Amino acid sequence: MQDLTEGVARFQREVFPAKADLFTHLAANHTPHTLFIGCSDARVVPELITQGEPGELFVIRTAGNLVPAYTPGANGVTASIEYAVSVLGVGDIVICGHSACGAMTALAEDHDLTGAPTVAEWLRHADAAVARTAGMAAGPEKVGALVRQNVYAQLTNLTTHPSVARALAEKKVTLHGWVFDIPTGRVEALGLTGTGAALAA
Fold first, then answer.
1. What pLDDT band is residue 193 in, cutting at 50, 70 and 90?
2. Which residues contact 70 (CB under 8 A, 6 or more apart)?
C-alpha cells in the first residue's frame, strides 16, 4: 500500500501539473475513441501498451479477456459494452489477448480448478476456443494457439450484443483482435474475416 500512496503523491506532484489542461478538459468531456477489452492480468496495461492519454480508451478488463455472449439481464460486462457503443459512440473495439495468459494456460493444460469453481465456470466462455485447439498436444504452442483462438471466439461473442450488432450493421464500429507478447512488447494484429459466428482467422 505504501507504493500506491507514494505513486499517488508522485502523480499529483509531477504528472498532473504537466497535464493540468488535459484534465480540465476531461472534467467536462468523456469521448473515448476505442473500447479496449483486455485481460485482468497485471502485466497487461492497455494505456501503457498503446501509449494513450487519459480519456482515449474505455477499458474493460476480465479474466482471460472473456466476453460472455449476450443474454438478457444486467451484468457489468454487457452494461459497459452497451455504454461504450450506444452512449459514448466508440468507433473501434479491440479485444486483446496476451502471452502466458493464466486463464488460457489453465485450459490448455487442463488444470484442476476444483478449488476455484467460479473461475472454472467463467472460463466456460472460452469453450469455442478450446474446441478449436482440441487436437493439439499440451505445451507452449497450444497455449499460444488457444490465446489467438480465444480472441476470435470473444469477438464472435461480442457480436451477439445488440448494441454491437447494431453499430456493425450501421458501419459505426470496427472490430480488432490483438495479441500482446509480454517478453518482447510486440502486438500482433489478427486478421479478421466475416461477422458473427463466421468470424475467424
1. low
2. 78, 157, 160, 161, 162
Q: Pick the catalytic residue from 101, 125, 132, 148.
A: 101
Whether residue 50 is predicted with pLDDT greater than 80 in this model: the reply is: yes
Is 96 marked active-site?
Answer: no
- Residue 201's pLDDT is 44
Which candidate in 43, 124, 166, 186 is catalytic?
Answer: 43
Confirm whether 98 is a catalytic residue: yes
Spot the catalytic one: 41, 96, 125, 161. 41
**Is position 43 annotated as part of the catalytic site?**
yes
Residue-wise pLDDT for 117-149, tens only, equals 999 999 999 999 999 998 888 888 999 999 999
